[in-house]
Write a structure and sequence with these properties.
Layout lengths: L3 E5 L3 H13 L3 E5 L2 H11 L3 E5 L7 H10 L6 E6 L4 H9 L4 E4 L4 H14 L2
Parallel strand pairs: 1-2, 1-3, 3-4, 4-5
Helix pairs in contact: 2-3
Length: about 120
């Protein structure tokens, strides 16, 4: 059974590119376009990993990360993706439970490799 990944990004080009590469890598992928949709989809889909943009509508990525960690998302890996590269932003993401904090611009191929590494660590 394929590992499940939820992409949370309101930018269609980014989401589509990640979806394509991850599906090609053998993962089952779903996309959410805002924070509320992300929480609902995480509940239905139960992903092993979430790629979570920080700046999304309705609930930002920090809020989504925190809510996932408070809910049933303790076992899932969370990778925060953002243009906010200041140390204080990274610390906030890690403090809320992100496993990895990746700043934009990033190489999608390198990101897919990091995803593989994180999922290999999963129990």
């Amino acid at each position: 059974m394929a590992q499940r990944i939820l992409i949370v990004d309101d930018e269609p080009n980014i989401a589509a590119s990640l979806e394509f590469l991850l599906e090609r890598g053998g993962y089952e992928v779903r996309i959410a376009r805002d924070g509320e949709e992300a929480l609902a989809e995480a509940e239905r889909f139960a992903p092993q990993l979430v790629l979570l943009d920080v700046m999304i509508p309705r609930l930002d990525g920090y809020e989504v990360c925190q809510r996932l960690r408070q809910g049933r998302g303790q076992g899932m890996k969370i990778v925060m993706l953002t243009a906010r590269g200041r140390e204080v932003d990274m610390e906030k993401g890690r403090a809320l439970g992100a496993d990895l904090y990746v700043t934009k611009p990033y190489s999608t191929r390198e990101l897919v490799e990091r995803v593989k590494e994180l999922l290999a660590q999963a129990p």
